[in-house]
Specification:
Number of strands: 11
Shape: globular
Largest sheet: 11 strands, mixed
Oligomer: single chain
Helix content: 25-40%
């Protein structure tokens, strides 16, 4: 856990064009996919999740693995967690596994930011981009015992004494759970240098803090907390997309007269230096997963927005996001 103060919203707001996140899974194929025909289910696939179980990366990785196996695109897909340093421990692992066509990593904007704020020697631009799968708006959430019943209640209390309200997020500086409350502060006229942000290593670590009423509010994707939202343990005050989130009874920030729209994204990468055949096989597996009824159901279940792009298009997107994050964090003195 780490508190981060003195962040300038103006620089952040000028920065990152965020689009929501995704996860994926693929593995090594037994034949060329250039014709679009599969030789059979892929085997030996591993999906690494670079933070703790229960968070957004973990949820999407396990959903993807299930669809891959259920649809017989792969067999016995393994999902494992390698948490630490905002995802950069996993990033170092994927970069160091050069040429390993069986290993993939579920990642997103949080890992991009953490690679700079944690001074990681490994960068996402060194990996082999496979696919961006989903986008997801953020949610402003409190526990059922919170005194804040509406976003207006929260904003009024926050503006009165910003430093007294701990704001939790499941990402490092530069990640989506950090940028959303920083931009929200700017949108409602709060001095960001007074914002008390507490960083958790993924949604799995953030959840007990929300349920235990240890935070004034949390900012994260709603998809990984749907069970607690539906049971009433977590109350969503507002969501940050253009439109309301299906299955979540809460207004958007814009509906609440707060001029802010914010979305996050997730995707899948492989180690550097994998063969062209492995890259084609991995992308083909993700394409089949994306086209399946099982994946469409997963999108609906978790309230994720489809944002599927692959290969070169995803590489261009990832390179752009990396540059934008680096520029913003440099202005903030965090990179």
């Amino acid at each position: 856990m780490r508190q981060i103060r003195a962040l300038r919203v103006a620089a952040v707001a000028a920065g990152i064009a965020l689009m929501a996140t995704g996860c994926g899974a693929t593995g090594k194929s037994t034949g060329s996919e250039s014709s679009g025909a599969a030789a059979g289910p892929i085997t030996g696939l591993q999906i690494m999740v670079p933070n703790t179980p229960g968070g957004g990366y973990d949820t999407t990785a396990r959903a993807a693995a299930k669809v891959l196996d259920d649809e017989k695109i792969s067999t016995n897909t393994e999902v494992f967690n390698l948490a630490g340093a905002g995802g950069t421990v996993g990033l170092a692992r994927i970069v160091n596994e050069k040429g390993n066509g069986d290993l993939t990593m579920l990642m997103g904007l949080g890992v991009v930011g953490a690679s700079y704020t944690n001074k990681s020697e490994s960068k996402l631009t060194e990996t082999t981009p496979l696919a961006k799968l989903i986008e997801e708006p953020g949610a402003i959430m409190v526990s059922k015992d919170s005194p804040y019943k509406t976003i207006d209640d929260l904003v009024k209390a926050w503006k009165a004494n910003p430093g007294s309200i701990a704001v939790g997020g499941g990402s490092s500086p530069g990640g989506p759970d950090h940028l959303l409350p920083m931009q929200l502060a700017g949108a409602v006229g709060i001095d960001a240098t007074k914002v008390n942000f507490v960083s958790y290593d993924g949604g799995g670590d953030l959840l007990p803090a929300i349920l235990g009423n240890k935070l004034g509010f949390a900012a994260s994707g709603a998809g990984e907390y749907l069970q607690q939202i539906k049971s009433g343990e977590i109350r969503v005050l507002a969501t940050s997309g253009e439109n309301r989130l299906d299955g979540v009874d809460a207004p958007t920030l814009k509906e609440s007269n707060i001029d802010l729209v914010f979305t996050n994204w997730r995707g899948v990468v492989a180690p550097p230096g994998i063969s062209e055949d492995d890259k084609k096989s991995l992308i083909a597996a993700l394409e089949k997963m994306h086209a399946s009824a099982g994946w469409k159901e997963a999108l609906k279940t978790h309230s994720w927005s489809d944002a599927f792009v692959t290969g070169d298009e995803f590489q261009t997107f990832l390179t752009d996001q990396d540059k934008r994050v680096a520029d913003v964090l440099t202005k903030l003195g965090l990179a």
